[in-house]
Amino acid sequence: MEYVTLSNGVKMPKLGFGVFLMNEPGEAEQAVTNALKTGYRLIDTASRYYNEEEVGAALKKSSIPREELFITTKLWFKDAGYENTKRAFEVSLEKLGLDYLDLYLIHQPFNDYYGSWRAMEELYKEGKIRAIGVSNFYPDRLKDLVMHNEIAPMIDQRETHPMNQQWEAEEWMKQDGVQLEAWSPLGRGNKEIFTNSILMKIADNHQKSVAQIILRWFMQRNIVTIPKASHVERMQENFDIFDFVLSHEEMELIKGLDQKTSIGGVLHNDPKMLDVLSQFE
Prior knowledge:
Blueprint: E1 3-5, E2 11-13, E3 16-18, H1 27-38, E4 42-44, H2 52-61, E5 70-75, H3 82-96, E6 103-106, H4 113-125, E7 132-135, H5 139-147, E8 155-159, H6 167-175, E9 179-183, H7 191-194, H8 197-206, H9 210-221, E10 224-225, H10 232-239, H11 248-255, H12 271-277
Parallel strand pairs: 3-4, 4-5, 5-6, 6-7, 7-8, 8-9, 9-10
Antiparallel strand pairs: 1-2
């Protein structure tokens, strides 16, 4: 496994496993169990993925020492605010069956996230969270949070894939020691990505799949990423990316694919997004 070192010195695996939309009974528990057996140690969930309990059940069954795991969950924006965050954190911790979290993120840049951040700073100082960060914060809101709080976010989790590479956002993050983490790294299986001639050619050069090329590209960009997979074979394929290296020319070819576009039009600076997200309790 390859690692990044966060601004507070905590080591975080670059490659993890995500459980978004794993909501069928037993689905998330089985997937996490298989992922841990495959070799994943970073597991990413959220309170509004509605599967923290199943993730916790898989962790409990595992014989992997707790210190080898890196568990992330996220605070929903309807639980924002100082007191609400303290309560929501304890609920998530109980569902996961853990004594502490490795990473806690503000899931969306809405509601009283300043109050939430103050609570998270305290939880971090108390040793209940090893690292704190945000998700879906654009550079303006991220910079504002950095400038007006004691502790800067250590992570910003953003939609990042070959069609939306986040170079400009990453440059802003680097100025303040914030690590970029990619959600939807494979573009949700978007056909335009997986049938792209450049990616297919590079994959052929290395005798790897397009997915493996993309994930290797993330490793060499030093970006943490959390691909989702339901089948063991795909989990293993996604994990098998540490035995080859992309050339500088190949990295540049992939860089040229950037369209700065979201898959499905997920824009967290669009007021319509708040209307959509508000439908979820």
